[in-house]
Each structure stands twice: as structure tokens, then as C-alpha cells.
Amino acid sequence: MWSSKKSSIDPNDPNRDWRLLEDLLRDTFNEQKKSRRWGVVFKSLTFVYLFVLMITFFVGARGGVAVPHTKPHVAVVRLDGVIAADESASAGKVGEALRNAFENDNAKAVILAINSPGGSPVQSGYIYDEMRRLKSLHPDKSLYAVIADIGASGGYYVASAADEIYADKASLVGSIGVTASGFGFVEALDKLGVERRHFTAGEHKAFLDPFSPVKEEEKQFWQQVLLQTHLQFIAAVKTGRGDRLQMTDEITSGLIWNGEQALGLGLIDGLGGVRYVARERVGEEELRDYTIKDSPLKMLLQDFGVSVGKGIALAIKDDGIPELR
Q1: Per-residue pLDDT tens digits for 218-234
Q2: Is 121:323 a contact under the CB 8 Å cutoff?
Q3: Are 244 and 266 in contact (CB under 8 A)?
Q4: Measured between alpha carbons, how far is 80 from 87 in angstroms, rounded to an integer?
Q5: Can you point out the beta strands (E) in the chain?
Q6: Cβ(73)–Cβ(107) under 8 Å?
Q7: In this predicted model, what pLDDT tens digit does every residue of 10-36 receive, in sequence order?
Q8: Closest Cα to residue 146, out of 13, 268, 45, 50?
């Protein structure tokens, strides 16, 4: 790069060309040194960033290092989103958080803060059973469920295991029912002239296949599976709520009510949020969050859009698996 400074070389100097070339080479060398210095700076910053990211990953692999809660408080465990094995509202994560909360002597009570439309009946059942187990092991520690926007189906299944349930007057509560949906493409294949080739061993192995006609006996069989799952749901709610809830056909029909209606029906015990329950029912203002969070690296990758494909897959997923919704 040519130097912008004024040349001090005598125009009449017989070695003028050589001196100009020398100045040019010197300026070029200086510019390269500056570029190398900036390169070192940027490489160092990149190294530091990757090092911090790596440390964050290992330290936060399980959501960070837990800091013991040494002062009296109310433990809060959050159950947000669809209840499923591979989601944040899985039985593994929620159960671990609940165990940590119950085992801390400084936690005066435990609040399960629910904001879920439901999900897997298996995962919901696991959480329900763990809540009841922990209550039996710690009879002196109350367990409350607080519903935010929605506590429906599997979300309500879980809530019914608590000692008391609270919600906002506009929260959506209930939906005691089971659903399993799918699509049928048999006529579409016929119109397209596509031949379906599907080989199985077992007369009914492909009874949920969307490209095969529905047989009446298989339809009745699947309906019985859903009915049995529904009865399990009803039995769990009845055990949890006791005489506070009259299990009528309407209550168990899959309908959903707002919080004010749910209170009148006995689905919940009162109106209020997490802080209300901590203050008015427990008598403790201090809250501590025990929720098991995803690692910072996972959240960072999700922020960069890695989870977009997963979201699309979930949106179009339709495998006929029963869900509490």
C-alpha cells in the first residue's frame, strides 16, 4: 500500500528509484505487521469465546451447578409446554426438580407451576405418581399446583396429585379426555394411481397405517384402548381430588373451563398465582426456582435456529399415539 506521507527523497538523487522502492517496501511491511496484530487480536477473541462456550457447556450440562438454598423459602418447580419425554416438561426433569425441592429442609412448601395443554399419558402418569410418592415421604410439606394460562388434560392430570390447585379466573382448566388422531390417504393414492406395498407379520400390525383402509374390528379395538386410558385418567383425578370434585359425565367429557368456572365445579381450590399461594397459604414470601433447565449450549443452539427443524417435525407429526389433550 502506498504511503500517504510526503516523500523526503531528493528528486535529483541518482538513487531516487531505489529509495522510493525501499520506502514502498517499508510501508508494505508496516501494514502487514498491523494486519497481523489485528489478526492475532481476532484469533485470541475467537479462542476466548470458544473456551467460554466450552466451559459453559460442561458446567451447564445439567442446567448449571445447583446452589443450595439455605434460607427458608417456597420451592417452585415449573412445568411448561407439552408433557413429553424429550421436552423440558418431561417426567425425568420435573421429577428430579420435585425431589430436590422436597429434600431441602429449608423449603417450607412446594409449588408446581403448570402451564401445559397436556401431552403423553405415560409421562403425565410418571409425574403424578412421583408427586404422590414424595407427598407420602414428606407429609409435613404441602404440595400446591398453580395453573397459569392453561392446565388441561395431562396438565390437569398432574395438577390433581397436589394437595390444592389454584388458577387465575381466566385460566383454562380441565379437558379430562384422551385423543389419538391421524389421516387416511387411501383414496388419494387411488386417484394418483399409486400402489401401496406394505409387508407385515401379524394380522393387525399395520392397523394405524394411514395408507391402509380402516377395518371395523380394528377401529373398535383402538377405541377400547383410548377408553381404558380415559378411565385411568378419571381414576387418577378422582384419587387426587376426592370429594371436592363430582365426577360427572360432563366433567370427564373433555370439556375445558375457565378458572372461575373450574372453582365452582371443584376442579380447583381457589383463585391466585404462585406468589399468592406462597404468601397466603404458606406464609412465606421468599421463592426459589428448582426447575431443571436445559444447558446454556443447548439454548444457544436453539437461539441460532437449530430447533427449527424439530419444530416443523413436531408440527406435522401424526403417528396416532394417544395424548392427554
Answers
A1: 889 889 999 999 999 99
A2: yes
A3: yes
A4: 9
A5: 73-80, 107-116, 142-152, 164-167, 172-174, 256-258, 270-271, 287-289
A6: yes
A7: 666 666 667 667 777 777 767 777 666
A8: 268
